[in-house]
């Protein structure tokens, strides 16, 4: 997906078994972010950055939704372990990740693999992507600050 595209309506099932739809968020802005694997150092840093700045992001009108290929049980454990109180979609078949363009070839430790590309989409009140943070732009430990800097320009 690109800036100007509408995100899919059906996003998936979260860690608590709830179906998450973008239409449920109409009138509100979203931070929709994809991450490679729950409970890993980079993904934990990114999630904790977003959680610790959740009030500031909410004051700017944003809600947070995470998505990875992890099973719902692992997403729930991740949320509980890190104190995350936002939906984490368990996209085990990569449907949403592929639709978003967050699934593809990447190089890790010199090896080419297919997997999740860490990406963040800022979505407006109408479900339209306004900004995409690409894998090379995202600094996991300060990602919320990166988003706040962007939206406060």
Question: How would you characterize the overall build of this protein?
Answer:
By secondary structure, the chain is α/β, with parallel strands linked by helices. The protein has a single domain, classed as Glutaredoxin (3-Layer(aba) Sandwich), CATH 3.40.30.10. It is 29% helix and 29% strand. Strands 5-4-3-8-9 form a 5-stranded mixed beta sheet. A two-stranded antiparallel ribbon has the order 1-2.
Show the helix and strand layout.
Blueprint: E1 10-13, E2 19-21, E3 29-34, H1 41-52, H2 54-59, E4 62-68, H3 72-82, E5 88-90, H4 95-100, E6 103-108, E7 111-116, E8 119-123, E9 129-133, H5 143-151
Parallel strand pairs: 3-4, 4-5
Antiparallel strand pairs: 1-2, 3-8, 6-7, 8-9
* Count of strand segments: 9
Q: What is the CATH C level class, in words?
A: Alpha Beta
Task: Report the span from N to C terminus.
Answer: 24 Å
Strand content: 25-35%
Put simply, the count of helices is 5
Q: What's the Cα radius of gyration?
A: 14 Å
Named CATH topology: Glutaredoxin
Mean pLDDT: 96
Low-confidence stretches: none
Order of helices and strands: EEEHHEHEHEEEEH
Q: Percent helix among the residues?
A: 25-40%
Biggest sheet: strand arrangement: 5-4-3-8-9
| Shape type | globular
Helix and strand content put the structural class at alpha/beta
CATH superfamily, called what? Glutaredoxin
Number of domains: 1
Briefly characterize the structure:
The protein is α/β, with parallel strands linked by helices.
Keywords:
153 residues; alpha/beta; Glutaredoxin; five-stranded mixed beta sheet; two-stranded antiparallel ribbon; 9 strands; 29% strand; globular
